[in-house]
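Lay summary

Proteins are chains of building blocks that fold into shapes. Our project writes down both the chain and a compact code for its shape. Here are two examples, one after the other.
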Amino acid sequence: MLVHTVLFKFKPGSTDAQIQSCADDARNLLAKIETVHSLYIGSPADTEVRPVSVRDFDLSLTVLFESVADHDVYQTHPLHDDFIANSKDNWSSVAVHDSD
């Protein structure tokens, strides 16, 4: 299993509607890619802030794949490209964490 986690920071002044639109695009586009095993979208949880907490993101995306090959199909899929094209102008930074 490969876990692909992406943390998005939106540009200052981005609206809740723009962040929600990005989340909706992830659900409506990325979830349709045949190699996606599971997909989770969230925002920073309202948990106690500890010294090790990372909360400097606006939206998180976690996608599970059965293999690295499945991940590679996802990375080059036209729906993945559409997702990026639809929202990238609103992002100030993106951090990707892949683990297996």
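And here is the second example, written the same way.
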Amino acid sequence: MLVSKRGVGCIYEVLNWMSGDNLFTHQLPRVSREAEAAAVAFNPALRQAVEDAKQITPANAVLWRERWFERYGETITLPRMTEDQHERKDSHSELAEKVHPDKIAVVDPKEIGL
């Protein structure tokens, strides 16, 4: 559940920075699991936040966000993931693992005037 005040954009910002990649939406679940493990290894106190997150519902999300702000502050230090912590995958190849290649259309923005 997203509890950020800044919305989903911060997910891309943090995971792109931690991974050194420019991630696509379908990559976020995998990379977020990698990032969670790297963050907890870097700062074991974050393990409690991972456990807390299992209790989040739409009704209590803001309450949990406020608790975490009190506990950790408005910002935390996170590591860049190492090669051992993050598997780099080509975004198109990873999508083809999830969706049949016949259903994938690759478009060059320059070709459509963007």
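What can we say about the second shape? Residues 9-87 form one domain.
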